[in-house]
Amino acid sequence: MAGDLQYHWLPFTGNREFKSEPRLFVRAQGMYFWGANGEKILDGCSGLFTCAAGHGRTEIADAVAQQLNQLDYTPSFLRSHPASFELAQRIADLTPADLNRIFFVNSGSESVDTAMKICSIYHRARREGQRYMFVSRERAYHGVNIGGTSLSGMVRNRESFGPSLPGVVHMRHTWLPEHRFTKGQPDTGAELAEDLQRLADLHGGQNIAACFVEPLAGSTGVLIPPKGYLQRLREICDDNGILLVLDEVICGFGRTGRPFGAQSFGVVPDIMTMAKAITNGAQPMGAVAVRQGIYDTITEAAPQGAVELFHGYTFSAHPAACAAGLAALEIYEKEALFDRAAALSPYFLDSVFALSDLPVITDIRGYGMIAGFDLAAGVKPGMRGHAVQKRLFDAGLHIKTTGDAGILAPPLIAERSHIDDMCQTLRVVLSEC
Hints:
There is one protein chain. With about 425 residues, this protein is of the alpha/beta class. It folds into two domains: about 140 residues, Aspartate Aminotransferase, domain 1; about 270 residues, Aspartate Aminotransferase, domain 2 (3-Layer(aba) Sandwich). The strands form three sheets. It has a seven-stranded mixed sheet, with helices on both faces. Strands 1-2-3-13 form a four-stranded mixed sheet. It is globular, with a radius of gyration of 21 Å. The mean pLDDT is about 95.
């Protein structure tokens, strides 16, 4: 039984509409949610890109319960606990190259703001404190804290909150009209990376601290990087002393068929942010992976025994979150879910792209185990996507929508039958639009 709905102010939700017609989840197991009226709802978006191993994993619940009974909380300021170091090492085993210094936070939004701070203090430690600028992209999503909101390029996430942080500039996004209905990476568009060089020429590359990009732009509707695009960004960053930061909050932990998008797309960043599937969604957690050289530069610039980074959170590396993270990584490895995602991806993408004959769909994009589709706009932008999301729920399918774009990212435990059911439900509902 739900409490009085009036007291909870829901995020990213039309609260008045929701409370007049609520759609509630009350249980989840495997590939499915169950609604308040007993309806079974296929999870087509891994919760919110969080539950890569599906729902109701008792291994994680048991690990969290055991940890809470043994050690419920440890401050991370001047103190820690063994599981935090073990989880950091397990994550470092998955990250590319020498991104082996792990800073724990509680969300993807916090990971982005933390990464921005690390970039700034790194350049100060190198006596290049004039590097105050950050580069991001149009249609980017980097969370909702003030730094991430400033980096983000989705208008509705920015327009209500006044001026962003000074010194944030944006490149163009990577979608081009000729990319319509392209499966995987487009062959054209690598030249869009030259926007970073143009901004370096305009503002002075020596004034730019970092370039933040998602390996593929997820929340905006899944924009796949053109072939060679990320590699060219890497080159420009190297030429100008700019740090390259990959926001792996959605891509991380198998979504692209490898541990991280960096490995799938063949580029090594200087810093990576991550969250969501780090605990399979069972506990709030995020992390920032930093190249060892950056960590060494920052720590060695401070006097021995002094605090090197004046930053952190009350719940950084919370024991229960670390227990959940360790249990989740054990599941991913034991069940080879990253390899499973790579093997299932062709069937998933073929099934989604088979919907291209529906007149209401104007584009489909996809890579790995994530795909996006655009709907022809209705009377007002976003109205059709919102209506479709509700109708899909009522038809037994949960997906994510952003405006008139739908996003599919099923748990990596999915079988072909789940993909078939998901796409059949989409076909029925979208045929009626």
